[in-house]
Design a protein that fits this description.
It is a single chain. The protein is α+β, with helices and mostly antiparallel strands and about 150 residues long. The chain has two domains: about 40 residues, Winged helix-like DNA-binding domain superfamily/Winged helix DNA-binding domain (Arc Repressor Mutant, subunit A, Orthogonal Bundle), CATH 1.10.10.10; about 70 residues, Alpha-Beta Plaits, CATH 3.30.70.920. It contains five helices and four strands. A four-stranded antiparallel beta sheet has the order 2-3-1-4. Strand 2 and strand 3 form a beta hairpin. Helix 2 packs across helix 3. It is elongated. The model has no long low-confidence stretch (mean pLDDT about 95).
Length: about 150
């Protein structure tokens, strides 16, 4: 980001997406209408793609998280695993990666049995082999982007 004011607005919104225009205005040293215009431009150009609430996984019954690497059983088949797995809502993220596996998934479930069922569903839906790493503790995530 070349514009330091836009960078300051983005940093502030990434730290607190519920900040009011007045708070953002004070934070970046511009008037409310100027901040509002810049926010609209950042949204319309796709720099800001949305706002969302961050939920406590334990409070919503999804305290077990894991990374699952997936590799196609038949490499000659179409590479469409992300589309085939999109319906599985326990998958929070799907990343294409370099290395032995094709993708790494970040998942959240409630129990070890739930993880076992999800792995089975992933294998069946996408015809892949899996390698799972269970997360014991998360020190930080969803950090604001440093600009």
């Amino acid at each position: 980001m070349d514009d330091p004011v836009d960078s300051a607005i983005l940093a502030a919104v990434s730290r607190d997406p519920r900040a009011t225009l007045a708070q953002l205005s004070e934070n970046v040293g511009l008037g409310v209408s100027a901040v509002q215009a810049r926010l609209r431009r950042l949204e319309s150009t796709g720099v800001i793609t949305g706002y969302r609430a961050l939920l406590d996984p334990e409070a919503v019954g999804r305290s077990l998280s894991a990374f699952i690497e997936i590799t196609p059983l038949d490499p000659s088949q179409p590479d469409n695993a992300p589309e085939l797995l999109e319906h599985l809502t326990a998958i929070e993220a799907c990343h294409s990666i370099a290395g032995d596996a094709s993708y790494i998934l970040f998942v959240r479930v409630g129990t070890p049995r739930g993880l076992e069922a999800l792995i089975r569903d992933i294998r069946l839906a996408a015809s892949v082999s899996t390698r799972t790493t269970v997360v014991l503790q998360t020190f930080y995530e969803n950090r604001p982007m440093a600009l």
